[in-house]
Structure formats: structure tokens, C-alpha cells
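Record 1 of the preview.
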Amino acid sequence: MTAAPTSNMDLSDVPRAASADLWLLIQIMVECEHGLLFLRGVTDVDRAKIEDRFWNDFEGGTERGVVALMRFWCLVDIFQSRRLRALLMARGYDIFYPAVVAAARLRLNLHWGFNPQRLIWALATERPAYSSTLRLGIEASQMGMAA
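->
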């Protein structure tokens, strides 16, 4: 049993997350063969399977893990927008690395989610060259991703 977070979290301004924590969720999503979540949306079964695996593999504190999960599910939700879905179709898995980097640092309000335009701007400025990392199983630490 894990301890409850020691502080109240402001849901209108969710704290930043470590890119490596979000990348772990992307790896779990791919390994569990749920890569289509970003196109079709998430079901309760998908959410339960990914979250269960995340808590088994995650080595950080509870609050840090909760922040990573909140940001990950909001990232999945924002890709339901037409423009981001089209960008995913055009760039494929190459979009995940810059999306993780952006989702870790962009402002997040749980009521409204990520600002779609700010995410599009962030994705436009990042270099999309990391799809092979998903296939090779390279860890986030080997890619130079830091919190």
C-alpha cells in the first residue's frame, strides 16, 4: 500500500513531470499493444491495464507517478483533436518523443486539458527522429532524457 500524497495538488496547474516517467508510459502502451490509443481513444480496460503495469514498473514516489499518469491521459485525450490526429498519421511513432517532451513541461489544467495549439507549436519545434527507439527498446536514460 502506498502513502497518500503529502500536499494538495492544484488541478488547475498540474506540476511538471519527468520526461522519463511519461516515456515509460509510452513504452508500456506500445509493449501492451495499445499504440492505437492515440487514434481511437481510451477504454476502461486500456486504462486499467496500462496503469497496473505502470505501478508495477514505476520506481518513483506516488505523487510523481500520479502526475505522470494525469499528464499521459491528457496527452492521449488531446490527440483526439482533428489536427493532432492528422499529425500523428503523418509522422507516425516519430511524434511520441516530442509529444512526451512537450507534455512533461506544458501547462496543464485538468478541467481543460492541454492547450492544443501550444502542443502543436511544441511538436513543430522538436526534431522527429526517435521512432526506432520504440522498436529497439532503448531506455529514456540512454536517449539523454532528463526530468
